[in-house]
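Hi everyone,

Forwarding the result from last night's run.
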Amino acid sequence: YQRRVRAELATQMAIILAGKQFIFTFSQFVIPIIFSNRGSCWNRCRTKVEEGEGGGGKKKPIKTPWERDYVLAETRDVFAEYLEMVIQYGFVTIFVAAFPLAPLLALVNNLLETRLDAFKFVAQLRRPTGLKCKDIGIWYNILSAVGKIAIVCNAGIIAFSSDFLPMMLYAFENADRYKAMGIEERLYGYVNFSLAYASPEMTGLNITCRYWAYRDRDGKHNFFFWKLFSVQLLFIIFFEHIVFGIVKLVDIVIPDIPSSVQLKIDIDETIAKLVLDDDDVNNKVDAATMTTDLDPTTK
């Protein structure tokens, strides 16, 4: 059941990243072309008819760049662009343990979308109005929260939907016994051990069936299941603490602002402060000079 769930999750991730994502990117490229060229066929046909009736009279005046931009589709807000990237980032980071090919598909999609967005903003949309902003705003907090959720989710996927921990626990418990028996295979008998018995009373059949579970013949969880469950919880705790520690270490080692950029910022602030101080000194000198000129007792 766990393997089937992981396979279904991987299939859904492939459909989302390799199918829906490319379709959405293509639609973002085609829709502006349709809106920017609306009525162009009708205008060309009308121009040809007018030229035919007028005997090829006046030539059509050449439009200026801003006139040509005016007929293009209106620039949309960048909210949709940010939302698309955040959703893609969430899918890639949260479920990467189930579908390791997700980062590659996201990279291919982003490389393609970079060129399509460049063509869209240059040739298919009106020139956007530039706005000054310090950073990406609330999106940074959203991405940070998604990254923390992704660490816990990947730890859970590895712990509960893979055979890594059950195999390791089985090999650790039976290592000495198999070594004494002269068996070098660490996972000897694991498949038979991991299959529980389904009695005829449970299935309603006249035969005994086997299914993947750590249960006894009565259908109750055996002692190995509870030991495995404890190991899985400990693995999640250790995994997320280690990854959170690495993330924090990288955040401390790599500064948000490079040292060269910070140096230029400090120089600019110092120069601006000196200029303001000079202006204050000059203003005080000018004020003192005017007072001296107006006071007759000083003459």
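Strands lie at 195-198, 209-212.

Cheers,
N.
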